[in-house]
C-alpha cells in the first residue's frame, strides 16, 4: 500500500484521545492509531446501517398495524361524529342509545361510512394522479423532450 505523508494540526484534547487509543490498542505509532480510528469509523457506520435495516425489517409489521389501527379509528370517529351530529339536530333531548352495529345500524351510519369511503377514494385518486403526472414529467426531463 502506498503511503502518503500528511501533516495535521490537532488540539490537545484530540491528541490525548489518540494517545489513549494508542495505549489501549498497543499501537506504536500515531499513524497506526489514526488508521485504526478512520477504519473503525467506517466499520461503525456500516454496522449502524445494518442495525437500522434490521430494525426496519423487524418492526415494519408492527408499524403497519399501528398505522392501520389509527386509520380505522379515524374512520370510526368520523362516522360517530356524523351520527351524533345528525341526532343532535333531529332531537334536542335524546333519551335512548341505539348501538351502531349489527341489526341496529341506522341508515345514517351506513351513509356516513359510504361518504367517508368516497372521500378516501377521491383523495387516493388525486394522489395517484399527481404521482402519475410527476412520473411523466420526470420521464420527459430524462429524455430531454420539452413541450412547447
Structure keywords:
mainly alpha; single chain; elongated; 148 residues
Can you lay out the helices and strands and say which pair or pack?
Layout: H1 12-25, H2 30-90, H3 107-142
Fraction of residues in H or I helices: over 70%
Q: Spans of 5+ residues with little confidence (pLDDT < 50)? A: none
What general outline do the C-alpha atoms trace? elongated
- Structural class by secondary-structure content: mainly alpha
Structure, described:
It is a single chain. The mean pLDDT is 82. Helix 1 crosses helix 2 and helix 2 runs antiparallel to helix 3 (107-142). This protein is 75% helix and 0% strand. The two termini are 56 Å apart. The protein has 148 residues and is mainly α.
Quick take:
75% of the residues lie in helices and 0% in strands. With 148 residues, the protein is mainly alpha-helical. α1 crosses α2 and α2 packs antiparallel against α3 (107-142).
Amino acid at each position: 500500500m502506498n503511503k502518503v505523508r500528511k501533516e495535521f494540526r490537532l488540539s490537545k484534547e484530540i491528541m490525548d484521545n489518540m494517545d489513549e487509543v494508542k495505549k489501549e490498542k498497543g499501537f506504536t505509532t500515531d499513524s497506526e492509531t489514526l488508521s485504526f480510528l478512520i477504519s473503525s469509523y467506517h466499520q461503525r457506520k456500516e454496522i449502524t446501517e445494518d442495525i437500522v435495516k434490521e430494525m426496519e425489517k423487524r418492526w415494519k409489521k408492527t408499524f403497519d398495524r399501528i398505522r392501520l389501527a389509527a386509520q380505522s379509528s379515524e374512520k370510526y370517529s368520523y362516522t360517530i361524529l356524523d351520527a351524533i351530529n345528525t341526532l343532535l339536530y333531529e332531537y334536542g333531548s335524546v333519551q335512548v342509545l341505539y348501538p351502531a352495529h349489527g341489526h341496529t345500524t341506522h341508515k345514517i351510519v351506513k351513509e356516513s361510512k359510504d361518504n367517508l369511503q368516497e372521500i378516501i377514494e377521491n383523495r387516493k385518486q388525486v394522489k395517484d394522479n399527481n404521482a402519475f403526472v410527476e412520473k411523466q414529467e420526470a420521464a420527459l426531463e430524462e429524455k430531454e423532450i420539452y413541450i412547447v
